[in-house]
């Protein structure tokens, strides 16, 4: 159903993408955590963890007005998960927190700016809704796509995300 609410549209898109992302994460083989398709690539486990940790970053866009990468007191994700169970538990926890914060927000709050910076260098300064879409959803989808390539290279069946995959035909 179409709604003119920015907040409700973001929540609907987020719910869809979280479901699809979890399906990919469930297939990540922990026993191949160190796999890298190229020396410059993140390892499979680093990439999977990054996808999960981006959820906490998206929550910052909703709950704060800025984030300085140089601030040693800024919130950070927990330690690297050491099992699939820990990774999926963190995904579920961070997903629930993000959805809750978005549900408690509204279009007016999402129109306020969020500034991401490194000291004096401004990475971006966007309305929160835009930051969620660009650096949140789009960024996560990009890395989830990388995960599907890793899975394919490891000959692990890839689930369809927006229709059937070659493995589901």
List the helices and strands and how they pair.
Elements lengths: L5 H20 L18 H20 L2 E3 L15 H21 L2 H4 L2 E6 L2 E7 H26 L16
Parallel strand pairs: 1-2
Antiparallel strand pairs: 2-3
Helix pairs in contact: 1-3, 1-5, 2-3, 2-5
Could you give a short account of the major beta sheet? 3 strands, mixed
Sequence of strands across the biggest β-sheet: 1-2-3
Reading off the top of the CATH hierarchy, the class is best stated as Mainly Alpha
CATH homologous superfamily classification? dinb family like domain
Overall 3D shape: globular
Order of helix and strand elements from N to C terminus: HHEHHEEH
What this model shows, in words?
There is one protein chain. This protein is mainly alpha-helical. It has one domain: Four Helix Bundle (Hemerythrin (Met), subunit A) (Up-down Bundle), CATH 1.20.120.450. It is 54% helix and 9% strand. It has five helices and three strands. It has helices at 6-25, 44-63, 84-104, 107-110, 128-153, and strands at 66-68, 113-118, 121-127. It has a three-stranded mixed β-sheet. A hairpin with a 2-residue loop joins strand 2 (113-118) and strand 3 (121-127). Helix 1 packs antiparallel against helix 3, helix 2 runs parallel beside helix 3 (84-104) and helix 2 (44-63) packs antiparallel against helix 5. It is globular.
